[in-house]
Amino acid sequence: MTVVKKVYPLSQSIEGLKKKFGDKILDVAGGELEHSIRAASSIVLEIMGDLKEAGFNHLSFVTAVDRGDVFALRYGLFSTFGRDGVLLQCEVPRDNPEIDSVTSLWSGANWHEREVFDLFGVRFKGHPDLRRIFMPEESEGHPLRKDFEHENLIRKPDFY
């Protein structure tokens, strides 16, 4: 028996999100097969659940950018059914960089979120195993933050 997944057009999914979340959807841009959504961080887990339900079945990446006063998080989603893509963007404050984990939706988010935690210090609430992935556990600080002091490295690389 073949299972066929009903896939909604990307524009229909985006319009549904705008209706459901209102002003918590800060901006939408894009074309027929690709969209960028900027949203409040408080609704990211719920939006991701809705997008997964709409057929976006692959989480490609989770990453961050240090903007000085905030960390900009980026989530890349892809639908293998409709060949559509969505870039979901949000910001978390530098003084309390915390957001809900999406590992309950995509188990593969585990490693991506651990990387963002290790390198930027963003905490993912509900993550099953949030610990360093690159740096030694005893390391101080997060090396991709703009305010990171390289003296905090346990072993300095040879090129210093």
Could you walk me through the main structural features you see in this protein, from its secondary elements to its overall organization?
With 160 residues, the chain is of the alpha/beta class. It has one domain: NADH:ubiquinone oxidoreductase Nqo5 subunit (Beta Polymerase, domain 2), CATH 3.30.460. Strand 3 and strand 4 form a beta hairpin.
Keywords:
160 residues; alpha/beta; Beta Polymerase, domain 2; five-stranded mixed sheet; two-stranded parallel ribbon; 7 strands
Count of β-strands: 7
Q: How large is the share of residues in beta strands?
A: 25-35%
Gap from first CA to last CA: 60 Å
Note the overall shape.
Answer: globular
Question: Structural class given helices, strands, pairing?
Answer: alpha/beta
CATH H-tier superfamily: NADH:ubiquinone oxidoreductase Nqo5 subunit
State the helicity in percent bands: 10-25%
Tell me the strand order in the biggest sheet. Answer: 1-2-5-4-3
Specify the number of helices. 3
The CATH architecture would be: 2-Layer Sandwich
Number of domains: 1
Give the averaged pLDDT, no decimals.
89
Low-confidence stretches: none
Q: How large, in whole angstroms, is the Cα Rg?
A: 17 Å
CATH topology annotation: Beta Polymerase, domain 2
